[in-house]
Amino acid sequence: MTAPAVLILLVASFLWLLRYRFRDSFLRAYGLFFLILLVYASNKEYYGISPEMSEGAFSPLSLVRWGLLVIFAYAAWRMKTPAKFHIDPVLGAAVTLLLIDMLISALYADSFSYSFLRGLSFALLAFALMKGLSAHLFSSVNCLNFFRLKYYAAWITIAPMFVMLVSGVGYGVTVIMNQYAGLFGNQNMFGTFSALITPYVLFHWRVVALKRWEKLADVLLLAAILGGLWYSNSRNGLSSCVIAAGSYFFVLNAQSRIKSIAAALCIVMAFLISPTLKSDLTRFIRKGTDTSAQVTSVSTQFVEEKRYEMWKGVWPMFWKEKLTGYGFASSHLLVFPFTKDEEAGRALHNSYLEIFGDLGLPGLLLLMVILYRVAATAAALILQRGERLERNINAVFISVFFAGSANAFFESWMFSVGNLTSLMYWACVAGVVARRAWRPAEAVERQPALDLRARYGYTR
Q1: How confident is the model at residue 26 (pLDDT cuts 50, 70, 90)?
Q2: Which of 170, 315, 354, 388 is most buried, most CB within 10 Å of its CB?
Q3: In this structure, what is the dihedral angle of CA atoms 325, 328, 332, 333, given to the nearest 10 degrees?
Q4: Exposed/middle/buried for 52, CB within 10 Å: 0-12, 13-18, 19+?
């Protein structure tokens, strides 16, 4: 048995689930696109996928990705918008203008074809999510099935790799410079994926799991996620996971918010009081620089970080073209002269700064309008009274949105259609929009969680 068998089993497991556990054609289209992006996020060469198979716009695997994106968009086009779905005109206008700006910017980009194809792919994804997925998630029943897909994904991708790591077997596990990355090609991708998958596990633990062994299984899965984040030394991933979990419980109700704040204060006090915990946390944050003579604190480390070095280097160049940018998906090519690390230099590691470099101030302002409208919608959902099931559904989407928005400040995935994180993030943006539009018009929507569990496939 060789390492490629790990990826083969993962793909086979997903295909089996989509065939026998999910009957909805739209969710299957989403699931297939999710799966191909998961394959791309994996440690491809380690699992037997050569660069010739995956790199380039027209490589075999890339053509499969394009094909599944088109299928996803076609399924969205066929999706009927619910009669009582309320569309935010400001949000819709901002998204449309941003997509137009992306496509037009290809005219002055260094490579028209590269920029245009990137813009076109994001336009297709935006259409699929805002036209199809937002309408799909209008139904609470569909939300439960969507969550179930992500919950299974957590078990398939997180649990086996972590067991291999802690057992000492290490078969099929990616470790890069003593940093655990599990199934993925780098520890930061593992960290971000773990953070954004956590709310789905929390939902299953709180709402779906009723038997003691089910709750125990969910606790063990959460422990595997946190343990993997610690071994990965992914600072952005761990902080994003904390934001996701904290946001989830904060959204639920006033009592949970008080508990969340109290728990956070206790954790902070524990790290402040315990020298061992404080030392471990410092070592984790400083990522091996705690013994450096030049780096004496977290603040000085930030200045020494490659990210800061890149941001500082490209800022004058970005500001020079502040009205137009350099063309969509083009500004990151200016990063290379400002870092000696070719791996780090492949991206700017800041989605907000990157869109400014790509599209200038107009693009950045449109993005800010979009995020503001989504954040305002999330705030309205937090204040909205509702059934326990609905509040937990809202909590998943909102927590992923908050965690992803924070994570994007240190990573450049926000507008990369080929990045799994981008799909996970924007899918939950569509979920926030859908849940604000939702109205409890159908009797099935008001069924208690136990009935929904039995009717829609949560039974064992």
Answers
A1: very high
A2: 354
A3: -90
A4: exposed
Six token digits for residue 399: 């927590």
What digits encode the pLDDT tens for the residues 206-242?
A: 999 999 999 999 999 999 999 999 899 888 888 899 9
What does the alpha-carbon distance between residue 50 and residue 56 come to, in Å, rounded to a whole number? 12
Of the listed ranges 12-21, 107-116, 135-144, 302-311, the one predicted with least confidence: 302-311
Predicted confidence (pLDDT) at residue 302 exceeds the cutoff of 70: no
Torsion (CA) 326, 330, 331, 337 in degrees, nearest 10: -120
pLDDT surpasses 50 at 459: no
**In the structure, what pLDDT confidence band is assigned to residue 149 with cuts at 50, 70 and 90?**
very high
Cβ–Cβ < 8 Å for 432, 402: no
Q: Determine the Cα–Cα distance for residues 201 and 392; give it in Å rounded to an integer.
A: 12
| Residues near 115 by beta carbon (within 8 Å), at least 6 away in sequence | 105, 106, 109, 327, 328, 329, 330
Which of 251, 255, 258, 301 shows the shortest CA–CA distance to 402?
A: 251
Residue 341 pLDDT: 57
What is the Cβ-side half-sphere exposure of residue 32, based on CA atoms within 13 angstroms? 17
How many angstroms separate the CA atoms of 115 and 327, rounded?
Answer: 7
